[in-house]
Amino acid sequence: MTLTSSEKLSISQNRTPLIRVENLQKHFPVMQGILLQRQVATLKAVDGLTFNIQRGETLSLVGESGCGKSTTGRMILQLSRPTGGKIYFENTDLTHLTEKELRPFRRKMQMIFQDPYSSLNPRMTVGKIISEPLIIHQFGNQNIIKNRVKEILELVGLNSNLINRYPHEFSGGQQQRIGIARALAMNPDFIVCDEPIAALDVSIQAQVINLMQCLQKNLGLTYLFIAHDLSVVRHISDQVAVMYLGKIVELADRISLYENPLHPYTQALLSAVPIPDPELEAKRQRILLTGEVPSPINPPTGCRFCSRCPEVMEQCRLEEPPLKDIGSHHWVACHLYSSKQVAEQSRV
Ligand code: SF4
Fold first, then answer.
1. What are the angstrom distances between the C-alpha of 279 and each of 43, 285, 286?
2. Residue whose CA is closest, atom 6 of ligand 1?
């Protein structure tokens, strides 16, 4: 029996994941001609992602804008249908379900958005915003719903007496708490957090991260946390996947990735993260990447990072490196590494 990459990943992690993503793709046709009838290229926004998220854990997807992180999150929630690959919620493949068959899964999977203000309807009170999903999914009568809304407001650290206020009457951090409360209304198992702190003041970011961690612990939530830099995900992640141009280039547990980043792109991203210790910060050497991120319509042949990689070799322009397990649950897509090399290095 031949095992798929995601099955190998599950076995190597020795657990059954809540979310299993296998060779996920989102390709868009690029059309030209007077009536846009001729396909001239394919934009590969997401191109063959494979990863697992264990129940109660957080996997962070990190990478520059446009690398396919948000598209991946939306596909897992089936807000955007993939053009290839499979997405399993426990043992059910969601990609072939009809809208009706998906309904019970929609209750279990929710999303927290980047900009809390624009994701909240300014004409609805907080009570109405949070009760909307409860009404749609027929949670109970008016009294049960009102009590549930108050309970969730308290859970996210807001006063339940504010139920009749409008979003503009709250600060940015409080608005994001309302967004989190709305996501929690149906008691979900899994939440996609799409850059949930990117629009907030730095002083508020830590509070929201702490709240999310606290909710995860108390409610057993599983997160896919999307962020564009590695500094914010350090405190919340169990696993980190680094994306570049629609592909995962490195996937590891948090400690391995931060202490031993292997891919040159991950090393460049990490070199930009400030270190709180002044002595170490003074010695920090930034790896500055030259050139722009190539277009996903016309990515470089071979390794997609070869046009910007400080360690590029001849082989890199000819062969695409596969995502390989180089040991200790650490996966990397780079010709610099083979499992043998890394095993030998760790013995030295
Ligand atoms: Fe750089 Fe080559 Fe590794 Fe790509 S495969 S990251 S170009 S060294």
1. 45, 13, 15
2. 334
Which residues partner with 89 through β-bridges? 19, 92
Does 306 sit in the ligand 1 pocket, CB within 6 Å?
yes
Is 196 a pocket residue for ligand 1 (Cβ < 6 Å)?
no
**From the CB of 309, is ligand 1 less than 6 Å away?**
yes
On whether the CB atoms of residues 5 and 22 are closer than 8 A, the answer is yes
CATH topology for 5-108+188-347?
Rossmann fold (3.40.50)
Is 321 touching ligand 1 by the criterion CB < 6 Å? yes
What does the buried/exposed string (b/e) look like for 175-213 if buried means 16 or more CB atoms within 10 Å of the residue's CB?
bbbbbbbbbbbbebbbbbbbbbbebbeeebbebbbebbe
Q: What is the pTM of this model?
A: 0.90
Report the C-alpha gap between 248 and 85 in whole angstroms.
15
| pLDDT tens-place string over residues 317-338 | 999 999 999 988 899 999 999 7
Domain boundaries, the chain: 5-108+188-347
**pLDDT per residue as tens digits for the range 225-259:** 999 878 889 889 999 999 999 999 999 999 999 99
Q: Which residue shows structure tokens 């596969």?
A: 322
Q: Rounded to an integer, what distance in angstroms lies between the CA atom of residue 85 and that of residue 105? A: 18
Token output for 302:
């071979």
| Contact partners, residue 40, CB within 8 Å, separation at least 6 | 30, 31, 32
State pLDDT tens for residues 276-303: 888 888 888 889 888 888 988 989 999 9
Does residue 65 contact residue 17 with C-beta atoms inside 8 Å? no
Q: How many CB atoms lie within 10 A of CB 266?
A: 24
Alpha helices of 224-348 — where are they, by DSSP H?
Answer: 254-259, 264-271, 278-283, 339-347
